[in-house]
Design goal:
The chain is an alpha+beta fold. It has 5 helices and 9 strands.
Length: 162
């Protein structure tokens, strides 16, 4: 058993070294959406109709949502017809409308980058249009390097985290 231990440790070290890494202290670049993947399936119309009934029923007060969501099924559908997308390494993620065609999504380029703080977490948000935002979260302090240049140059959409 003792002789196998170095082999196990070496194997584990090689495996961990081969995993994609996020720069612990370094540059965070807005992802190229050509490489993002859809994580789950979109809800079906039947599922949306079923959950609409429960979400907007007489007991809807427990969900604490705004009053407009249940005025019309289409408003509810817009809110709930979403699916999780993420980069292949899992660093960035977004909940996006299932009505957005994947081919259209994959052609979008970043046009803005913002950095915000929520408690101890820092959120780097990369915007690709009005309804497409991919987020990266870290406990490190981050700053957008050239947020203004990002509007015209996708390569400038980056942040530094330390």
């Amino acid at each position: 058993m003792m002789q196998r231990m170095p082999t196990l440790v070496r194997s584990l070290a090689l495996t961990l070294a081969a995993l994609p890494t996020l720069a612990a202290a370094g540059e965070v670049v807005c992802p190229d959406l050509a490489d993002v993947v859809q994580v789950a399936n979109c809800p079906t119309e039947e599922e949306l109709a079923f959950t609409y009934t429960g979400y907007c029923s007489d007991n809807s007060r427990i969900y604490g949502k705004g009053p407009d969501v249940c005025k019309d099924y289409q408003l509810y559908r817009k809110l709930k017809n979403v699916v999780l997308w993420e980069t292949k390494d899992g660093a960035f993620h977004a909940y996006l409308s299932c009505d957005l065609p994947a081919a259209t999504l994959k052609q979008l380029k970043p046009t803005r980058i913002t950095v915000g703080k929520d408690g101890k977490m820092t959120r780097v948000a990369c915007g690709y249009g009005p309804d497409v935002v991919f987020a990266y979260r870290s406990r490190e302090a981050c700053r957008a390097d050239s947020a203004a240049a990002c509007a015209t140059d996708p390569a400038a959409c980056r942040a530094t985290c330390e």
